[in-house]
Amino acid sequence: MWVLLRSGYPLRILLPLRGEWMGRRGLPRSLVPGPPRRRYRKEALPALEVPVLPVTATEIRQYLRAHGIPFQDGHSCLRTPSPFVGTFELKDQPRATTSLSLFINKTTGRFLCMTSLAEGSWEDFQASVEGRGDGDREGVLLSEAPEAEDSEEVRRIWDRAIPLWELPEPEEAQLARMMFGLTKVTDDTLRHFSVRYLRPARSLVFPWFSPGSMRLRGLKLLGAEGQGDGVHYVETTIPRPGAYHNLFGLPLISRRDVEVVLTSRELDSLALNQSTGLPTLALPRGTACLPPALLPYLEQFRRIVLWLGDDLRSWEAAKLFARKLNPKRCSLVRPGDQQPHPLEALNRGLNLSRILRSALPAWHRSIVSFRQLREEVLGELSNVEQVAGVRWSRFPDLNRLLKGHRKGELTVFTGPTGSGKTTFISEYALDLCTQGVNTLWGSFEISNVRLARIMLTQFALGRLEDQLDKYDEWADRFEDLPLYFMTFHGQQSIRTVIDTMQHAVYVYDICHVVIDNLQFMMGHEQLSTDRIAAQDYIVGAFRKFATDSSCHVTLVIHPRKEDDDKELQTASIFGSAKASQEADNVLILQDRKLVTGPGKRYLQVSKNRFDGDVGVFPLEFNKSSLTFSIPPKSKSRLKKIKDDNGLVLGPVILGP
Fold first, then answer.
1. DSSP state for residue 166 in the 8-state scheme
2. CA geometry: angle at 283 spanning 281 and 289, to 5°?
3. CB atoms within 10 A of CB 349
4. Before 645, cis peptide (omega within 30)?
5. Is the peptide bond before 585 cis (omega within 30 degrees of 0)?
6. N or C: which end of the chain has fewer CB within 10 A?
7. 438: closest CA among 289, 286, 328, 225?
8. CB within 8 A of 62, min separation 6: which ones?
9. H or E element: which one contains 513?
10. 289-301: per-residue pLDDT in tens?
């Protein structure tokens, strides 16, 4: 007897928010089921007190051999016979194609039966093999089916959408093609991929069909808005992004195909397939995330080319995704003026096949020469602003000093007790999260519920206690942010925390991890002299994780006990000097009044390894929204003063 436990998909993506709440993000109200609705999950389980130990590929292989289960070793998954084939086998598929239809992810242990869509965790698989399980949950649970309301909405929109070439007015069809850059994409290509056009929303409609059955499971709507001299695209997915796992173009893939090109947009897949004739797939979340649930569908390919975009962020995402897919079979198209998005390349008359042949291998040996690095160096020199990272929208002064938020760095943040460190760092991280930076919070001092309440208040820019009727509206928008929380609280093993962070990077493509704070994670009972050595070891572990995983880690550390009338310095960070030495950036929240400034607090950047700029700027706390806003503009300005050791002595106010 096989027993499977069902779990949802907490994957999220950031969608642009425009104007007032419009139901499903800008769809015409005639196509929206109603006001924002509250969703409840059945059998919600509390967080486990004992974290589940990670499983390795070696342990999975040993377990399968011990139980006599045959398997094939793949690129990212192990293939085994599925016990559900006899019940769910499709009539038009021969037994040979479904005999090894169960895929087990080598990293997470999660499995998926391609024939029946049954899925579960590694613990579920073991319980099924050994005949264990909860009688109340006994049975087969399939991958999450869309809600009835979503299914009705999908069918209603799909039925109202029509092919572009069937629009009654030729001028309207031509305008739509120009809006989406489809002037060189033929009707045959649009027909081949079943692309339609929804006239009321002025949006292209891309269907999500189940492989094999061709059942319509969902839709992606792509709207176009004028933005200056360019066009801004707005995506809407049904069902919600967390359950939208559509590899656009998958039903057109043959079992004999051994090469595929992955793109970040459906429009690029259309252009590539038309120009080269190669199989193409579009990732459902673009460059934001490659869900591991999609890896079994990519196992058959011996070579995968990733052509995700024309900027540095797309290049970084391609390298990250290649690590999941097995870099030995991946090649990457480097962004450049002569290698733009596939659709733009088609419109410019470039040779797409030649660009694909110039793709670089993702895998290389541990030692390289400058000859292999010169193109990457040129790319950084040509994209200075993109290399600087993601810029904050709420803290322009932070952009002036740090230039941006970059992957692979370690930021140490400190401040006096009660100065608002958690409140500030939550807005600091929320600012980045709203711009698509996948964020993982490890709050060891306050509960996740309280932290989420603070962040929701900052997100809504106002307290919701007095306007509970708007809670669902803001909660739905907040839920779509790529934001996740660890379930730990209090003292935790550094190995357990690092394992959780590595799992989050693999599953959710996390780019920013916040640890608040180091002392609470270590616990207060370590009062021996080894406490300093233990802290140094933990800081070193976070430094190594940030570098190896290309993920930014923000680490909150309490300062030493200082006199109230003294400003904190880099040397005020608790412990040895290792924390400030290992850090790329050191931020200090000073809780003192400026000489002529309006605020009580200000932020000091005392270390910046990227370009060396350090300095201070005032903060003003807004109690109603729990935010640190920019103080009112004045004629005075701040000047950075350094002593002989490079330390900031303090702000000097200069006149106009």
1. G
2. 155
3. 7
4. no
5. no
6. C
7. 289
8. none
9. strand 512-516
10. 999 999 999 999 9
**Calpha distance 116→138 (Å, rounded):** 17
Interatomic CA distance for residues 408 and 585, integer angstroms: 12
Angle in degrees, CA 409, 410, 413, rounded to 5: 140
Instruction: Name residue, tokens 């760095």.
Output: 409
Q: The tokens of 349 are what?
A: 């008359």
Separation CA 320–CA 287 (nearest Å): 10
Structure tokens, 527: 């009062």
Residues 6+ apart with CB under 8 A from 197: 161, 162, 163, 164, 167, 176, 203, 204, 205
Q: Residue 394 has what pLDDT?
A: 92
Residues 6+ apart with CB under 8 A from 557: 412, 413, 414, 517, 518, 519, 573, 574, 575, 579
Rounded Cα–Cα distance for residues 434 and 438 (Å): 9
| H or E stretch at 36 | none
Residue 503: is it exposed, middle or buried by C-beta count within 10 angstroms (0-12/13-18/19+)?
Answer: middle
Cβ pair 110, 292 in contact under 8 A? yes
Token pair listed for 583: 């850090």
Which tokens go with 525? 């009972």
What is the C-alpha separation between 656 and 647, in angstroms, rounded? Answer: 26
Token output for 491: 């003292």
- Single-letter code of the amino acid located at 5: L
- H-helix or E-strand spanning residue 134: none
User: pTM of the prediction?
Assistant: 0.74
- Distance CA(537)–CA(469), nearest Å, equals 48
Question: Distances from the Cα of 591 to the Cαs of 518, 567, 594, 624, in angstroms?
Answer: 20, 8, 9, 20
CA nearest 542: which of 521, 571, 564?
521
Is pLDDT of 18 > 80? no
State yes or no: pLDDT of 97 exceeds 90. Answer: no
